[in-house]
What we know:
7-stranded mixed β-sheet, 0% helix, 4-stranded antiparallel β-sheet, 11 strands, mainly beta
Amino acid sequence: QMQLVEYGGGSVQAGGSLRLSCKRSGFGFGSYSMGWFRQARGKEREEVARIDSNDDTIYSDSVKGRFTISTDSNRNTLYLRMGSMSPEDTGIYYCAAGFPPPYGKRWNPAHYGQGTQVTVSS
């Protein structure tokens, strides 16, 4: 069973930066993708960024150019560097891992962390 634990949430002012980390432990397939979702109050959880096993990265339109996803060399730690943040980035951020989705389909990972709160004030 895989465990995912997020670190690094907190509060930041608009225009600021924050970095999230996620440590992975337990069994996981080498072909797993890893990524980040977020959920704002009253809204559905949305995929923010994903990195596939071949290191291809995918970003939602709302964060493209501002956020960067990366892993360490053994893919046990996942990062999300967030820049030029706005209040619209506020929400609970979840680390996720699982097989990548079929082309053009929504990603539905098998594993999620417990989430970490990110708050951006104006």
